[in-house]
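User: Structure please.
Assistant: Input sequence and predicted structure:
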Amino acid sequence: MSGQVMVQGKGTVPLTQLNVGDEVLAMNPDGKLVYSEVIAFLDIKNDTSGHFYRIETESGHKVHLTGKHLIYSSDTNRTSFVLDSIDSRFEAIYADHAQVGDFLITTRGKSGVRASAIRSVKLVTKQGMVAPLTKTGTIVVDGVVVSCYAFINSDYIAHASFSVLRGLHDFYSYLPFVSWPETAIASYAIDGMHWYAKLLFKIAPYFMGRDLLYMND
């Protein structure tokens, strides 16, 4: 993904300047905007140009995602979702499946959310891509709530798959004299896919059906 995020204590920050340990605006399972800790980067490509889907909503929000990235979409704007959960009326779809007329979850003010219709979807070329992983598994990019995950066509399964990484993070947080190893590379922003994400990518075809995996690359 590409764009800007809201970081607690820092304000609006480009994704390329995000660090492990930052508390970034996200959405919890109850549909509430919260600040969630960045615990790792699943993929970083600082100098590589690639194709992004620029999705613009009627509310004026624009978000840039790779085609395989998950975004929350619905065919209804009935925001009587005091969102019991993200899954109540919104499902995670690949960005390249987003269509004009569908609805995304966008921010409203500093703490609220609303459903905003997609006005346009365009394929553009941009340089640089960052995929941070938060504890909630979600992140607000340029005012649009998106998933931290890609490749797997199920936000629930993807989030469960990364429970090991979240568990390791929590384990290290209870050790007073040992820091979370990810912080050692936080400011370096080393290019490439995270070792755990790479491992899942390799073994996923053996445990998941083809309908759950992004096969268009």
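The first helix runs from residue 155 to 161.
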